[in-house]
Design brief:
With 216 residues, the chain is mainly alpha-helical. The chain has a domain of 141 residues: Rhomboid-like (Rhomboid-like fold), CATH 1.20.1540. Helices cover 49% and strands 4% of the residues. The protein has 9 helices and 3 strands, in the order βααααααααββα. The chain is globular, with a radius of gyration of 28 Å.
Length: 216
């Protein structure tokens, strides 16, 4: 598994929208943890459910059994809820690495609109796959995936150090840290399989030498 550490693409503008989104997610998560520790468990689950996207609310709205706020407002609020620390850390890591370059390319306002629309659209698409599901959905990762995909065509030749198996993977081919004309050590092909196979010639037993004496 490759975990990106950073990118090597400096932004021309300060990504204050991206940093604000990260801080907002962290603050909401800390508030969420504080509520879980101070209020009854059943009350916390009910509060979390009210701000989470539940697919079955959309058919209920169309049938007139749920209000617009109850059905559609959680599409936005659920983007800032996380199920645990690792969930938050993974999402914020990718947003920190990729979000600044997309904000630099799109502009501050358009990046915020893009992020929110990607999250809402992803939650709606996920709800359409199981419209009668009552399972709440929080922090749909497709909004971050959309940010990652938006970065690829603009910065496809960029380098990104990663960590694999607990060791630094090193610079990407073509980056400043890579030797010209030679791929880094982690990108080289493994030795051919024949290197580890036994040599057929070595397995052949030498021909037995006759020790019989001629009959006289």
């Amino acid at each position: 598994m490759f975990i990106p550490l950073k990118d090597l693409n400096p932004s021309r503008t300060y990504p204050f929208v991206n940093i604000t989104l990260i801080l907002a997610n962290v603050v909401v998560f800390l508030y969420q943890v504080g509520l879980e520790a101070t209020i009854p468990h059943r009350a916390f689950d009910a509060l979390l459910l009210s701000y989470s996207t539940v697919p079955s609310r959309f058919p209920a709205f169309l049938a007139g059994h749920a209000s617009f706020e109850v059905s559609f407002l959680p599409l936005v609020t659920s983007m800032f809820l996380h199920s645990g620390f690792l969930h938050l850390a993974g999402n914020m890591l990718f947003l920190w690495i990729f979000g600044d370059n997309i904000e630099d390319a799109l502009g501050h306002g358009r990046f915020l609109v893009f992020y929110l629309l990607a999250g809402v659209g992803a939650a709606m698409a996920q709800a359409l796959t199981a419209p009668r599901s009552a399972v709440p959905d929080v922090a749909t990762p497709q909004s971050l995936a959309s940010t990652t995909r938006a970065r690829r065509p603009r910065l496809s030749g960029s380098a990104m150090p990663t960590r694999h198996g607990g060791q630094d993977a090193g610079p990407a081919p073509g980056s400043a840290g890579a030797a010209p004309g030679r791929p880094p050590a982690h990108c080289t092909s493994p030795p051919p399989l024949t290197r580890w196979l036994p040599d057929p010639a070595a397995d052949k037993m030498p021909a037995a030498r006759s020790t019989a004496q001629p009959f006289t």
